[in-house]
Amino acid sequence: MSRYRIGFDVGGTNIAAAVYDEHYNMIEKASVPFPRGKDVYFVCRVLKNLADELVFENGVKKYDVISVGIAVPGSIDSSGETVIDAHNLGFFDAPMLTASKEAFSEGKEITQNIALINDADAACLAEHKKGVLRGATTAALITLGTGVGGGLIINGRLFKGGRGSGVEMGHMIIEQGGERCTCGNYGCAEALCSATWLINQGRKNFSGMIKTLAGGNIDAVTAKIVVDCAKAGDEVALSIFNKYVESLSSFIASLVNVLDIERVAIGGGVSGAGDFLVNPIIRKVGEKSFFRTHGDIAIAEFENDAGILGAALVHEY
């Protein structure tokens, strides 16, 4: 008898979901807009409806779904029941496990075996089980998007923090008195290594090729535009990109020096720069590392599907 798992990646813009078979092969993926301004109970009913659609359209029997995992962009309490803080969702001390079990109990066909996980931890699980971190005992995934997130593998398992509150690598302070972060502190990795930083710098230095590729519209500047201009040799963009590499390499070198990590995976939108980003990062981390040699640094494998797959995998860890 076939057994299936469903993974959700709940974001502030969209909710993505997928059905996986027992070998974690994706059968089907779908997404719906995130219902902004709605409470956690309403959102969980949206999850249940999306799950119903996925299993119906693919001929999966609801009673063959053995687990559901939900990845959210925020901190989760040590009991795994409450989303403490998810700014992008508008959830604060939200009883999401209770709400999801209530929603999925309607009809009683889909499992009540439900678990929550931070979205960066979910992506880390996906890479460790199926991607570039596979086989590593000590590893890290860093996600470079609107913010900076990450997950750690310690002794072959996901590390959820010494008190179970999670890992917030993006709020490691790497520049004393640096730029203000969304958390209120100054000089966090998130303030200096995110796609948002690249966008803001492109807008502050709106000239040359950046201005051309943005069609003269400052609001059209993206991190990709800044990186593409740097690749093309634009001096303004190269200056921005080189400063970005300095910050990111300091962040990664700090992790390497503390943990002697075997492998670091870089994911998120900025990772689309590929070797143009990774090669100078490897060189700079080598220069900044305490150790004569350091672990591998590579681009993550699963891109936008990492959070969904990791959510489906959460019951394995």
Protein architecture, described:
The structure is a single chain. The protein is of the alpha/beta class. It folds into two domains: 4-122 and 306-316, ATPase, nucleotide binding domain (Nucleotidyltransferase, domain 5, 2-Layer Sandwich), CATH 3.30.420.40; 132-300, Nucleotidyltransferase, domain 5. The protein has helices at 40-57, 96-104, 119-130, 189-193, 195-204, 208-213, 223-231, 235-259, 275-288, 306-313, and strands at residues 4-10, 14-20, 26-33, 65-72, 75-76, 83-86, 91-94, 114-118, 139-144, 148-154, 157-158, 263-267, 296-299. The longest helix is centred in the last third of the chain and has 25 residues, at 235-259. The chain is globular and about 60 Å long. The mean pLDDT is 92.
Keywords:
Nucleotidyltransferase, domain 5; alpha/beta; 317 residues
Radius of gyration: 20 Å
The secondary-structure class comes to alpha/beta
Strand content: 15-25%
CATH level-4 homologous superfamily of the largest domain: ATPase, nucleotide binding domain
Q: Helical region count?
A: 10
Classified by CATH, the class of the largest domain is Alpha Beta
Instruction: Note poorly predicted spans.
Output: none
CATH architecture of the largest domain: 2-Layer Sandwich
Order of helices and strands: EEEHEEEEHEHEEEHHHHHEHEH
CATH domain topology of the largest domain = Nucleotidyltransferase, domain 5
Tell how many strands the DSSP assignment holds. 13
Q: Identify the strand order in the major beta sheet.
A: 3-2-1-4-8
User: On the 0-100 scale, what is the average pLDDT?
Assistant: 92
Termini separation comes to: 23 Å
What is the total domain count? 2
Shape verdict? globular
Fraction of helical residues: 25-40%
Largest sheet: 5 strands, mixed
